[in-house]
Each structure stands twice: as structure tokens, then as C-alpha cells.
Design a protein that fits this description.
The protein is elongated. The two termini are about 20 Å apart. Helix 3 runs antiparallel to helix 4 (about 75-90). It is α+β, with helices and mostly antiparallel strands. It contains 9 helices and 12 strands. The chain has helices at about 25-30, 45-50, 60-70, 75-90, 125, 145-160, 195-210, 250-260, 270, and strands at about 5-20, 30-40, 95-105, 115-120, 135-140, 160-165, 165-170, 180-190, 225-230, 235, 240, 275-280. The protein has 2 domains: about 5-125, GTP cyclohydrolase I, C-terminal domain/NADPH-dependent 7-cyano-7-deazaguanine reductase, N-terminal domain (GTP Cyclohydrolase I, domain 2), CATH 3.30.1130; about 135-290, 2-Layer Sandwich (Alpha-Beta Plaits), CATH 3.30.70.560. A hairpin with a 4-residue loop joins strand 10 (about 235) and strand 11 (about 240).
Length: about 290
């Protein structure tokens, strides 16, 4: 293992309003908190390729940290800093992080500009404490290029595949005419990522498969939809769980019934039109390919 120190991406002066503190009025009224981050990332590849995919997107980091902080109601800055560190370390390529959280309006009678805490955390600090992994159920599809190879590559990249359906060849639904049939399947994945980090990982895998988002419901090399994540429900512009159109899609429900029949709507097979979905058998894929 190399001892070369990681490079650093700096995020400075992110101000988010949230509830934090021990006093009664601090529990009732949100206040501005300043967040500064040092993300320790290996930037050699990005320096060579000039490609955003080879680095950590600081805009992404800021958005996800801000979302986590706004929804928090921690008592201590120490707890809030730890929450931020956990979010930062779920982001691809970040190996360690320095988090500084500053309270801009300290509730004391003396003149004091600010108070704050600074912590350093590594990815291994949280990986060692991970208990049972989450179970994410995803639908995979492809109708461009070597469809089977794209599905196989996605499973390898998702890593801990707990269960998977056979592959179905399906007629395109929606989108422009003249598209080739899809290969579709469903897989259950074990992951230690949170739902948003897992979504980002799926989108990254789509990007690595040269997925082009040019036309809505157009042809694609790889499509990964998050259907379920444990038993949680999320209604957010970026992520809705369970998937909002799940009950309308036989090309998803047929393979889902092989992986998690209990997740399918009652009597779905007799309600949805039966045409356009053709089973092709198991995908030739070995877990040790990863």
C-alpha cells in the first residue's frame, strides 16, 4: 500500500441554517452554521485526464452536506461535525476528511465572534462500525450495444449482489420509435451507502457505460433504477423510493417477482398487459468476476 499522501479539495464558507444547541431558544429557532471541509482525495488521474469523472465534484459535496445539516437537530456541534464527516465519506474517492463547524452566533453574553469544532475522520473509522448492510433492489436495462455485457458490467460494479432475476427481452415502452428491444433484469444489492450515495454510485456506473441522456426514454447503453432501499420511503425531486412507476411496468415486475415477490403489487400479473416481455434465462455472470 502506498504511503503517498492524498491531495486535497477545499470547500470553504458553506453557510447552512439549522437547529443546533443546548439552550431552549436554540432548539426553537434555526441559526446559521459555517462549514469548512478538507476532502483528502487522490487527484493524480484528474490532473492527467482533465475529466470531472476522475475527481470529486465539490458542488455535489456541498449540496449533500447542506441537505444533511438542514434536516439535523443535533445538540452538540461535535455531533453535527460527525454527521457531516459521515456524509462526506460516502462520496466516491474521498478517503478522509477534516470538518470544521462554526457557530456564527454563540449564545453567550461576552463578545465572541464565533465558536466551533474541528474533527478529522477516515473512511475506515465508519467502515469498522458498520453493522448489517442495507438492501437495495435495482432494475437494470440496456438496449444499445452489447446489452448483456452492459448488464454484467453493472453487476460487477455494484459488487455485493445478493440475488438476481433472469434476463427478460422486452419491447420499448415510451420514448422515440424504432428502438431496439431491451434486456431487463432486477437485482438485490447489499450496500453500506446511504440512499443518496447509492443513487450517485448507480449514476456513476451508468456514466462509465457511456450512458447518454439526450432524449427522454430514448435508447441507452445502461439504465439503473433504484426500486427499493430497505423499507424506507423517500419523496424527493432527486430520488423517490419506492420507484413511482413501479406498478405500471411489467418489464420490471416480472423480474422483481423472482427476486422479491412480496414487493410486487397484489395480482399484478393478471392486471398488466402480458405482451412484450420475454424471459431469456439467467445472465452468464460469476460473482468472482468482481
Amino acid at each position: 500500500m502506498t504511503n503517498t499522501p492524498f491531495d486535497r479539495i477545499e470547500v470553504r464558507g458553506l453557510v447552512v441554517t439549522t437547529v443546533v444547541g443546548t439552550l431552549a431558544h436554540e432548539r426553537e429557532i434555526a441559526q446559521p452554521i459555517r462549514i469548512d471541509l478538507d476532502l483528502h482525495v487522490n487527484l493524480r488521474e484528474a490532473g492527467r485526464t482533465d475529466d470531472l469523472a476522475d475527481t470529486t465534484n465539490y458542488g455535489d459535496v456541498a449540496e449533500r452536506v447542506a441537505m444533511a445539516v438542514r434536516g439535523a437537530k443535533d445538540v452538540l456541534l461535535e455531533r453535527l461535525a460527525d454527521r457531516i464527516a459521515r456524509v462526506a465519506l460516502t462520496i466516491e474517492r474521498v478517503e478522509s476528511v477534516d470538518v470544521t463547524v462554526t457557530k456564527l452566533r454563540p449564545p453567550i453574553p461576552e463578545h465572541l465572534e464565533s465558536t466551533g469544532v474541528r474533527i478529522h475522520r477516515q473512511r475506515t473509522d465508519y467502515e469498522a462500525a458498520v453493522g448489517d448492510p442495507h438492501v437495495a433492489i435495482v432494475a437494470l436495462g440496456s438496449n444499445l450495444g452489447d446489452r448483456e455485457a452492459f448488464l454484467r458490467g453493472a453487476l460487477v460494479a455494484l459488487r455485493d449482489v445478493h440475488a438476481m432475476s433472469q434476463v427478460y427481452e422486452t419491447d420499448p415502452v415510451g420514448g422515440p420509435g424504432g428502438q431496439q428491444p431491451f434486456f431487463n433484469m432486477v437485482a438485490a444489492i447489499h450496500t453500506v451507502l446511504d440512499p443518496y450515495a447509492f443513487l450517485r454510485r448507480c449514476q456513476q456506473i451508468e456514466g462509465e457505460a457511456q450512458r447518454q441522456r439526450v432524449e427522454h426514454w430514448g435508447p441507452r447503453t445502461l439504465d439503473i433504477d433504484v426500486l427499493f432501499f430497505d423499507d424506507i420511503r423517500i419523496d424527493d425531486p432527486r430520488l423517490t423510493i419506492p420507484h413511482p412507476r413501479l406498478g405500471e411496468r411489467r418489464f420490471v415486475l416480472a423480474p422483481l417477482s423472482e427476486v422479491a415477490l412480496e414487493r410486487c403489487p397484489p395480482e399484478w400479473a393478471s392486471v398488466l398487459p402480458p405482451l412484450g416481455v420475454y424471459p431469456r434465462g439467467p445472465l452468464v455472470w460469476l460473482a468472482n468476476d468482481a
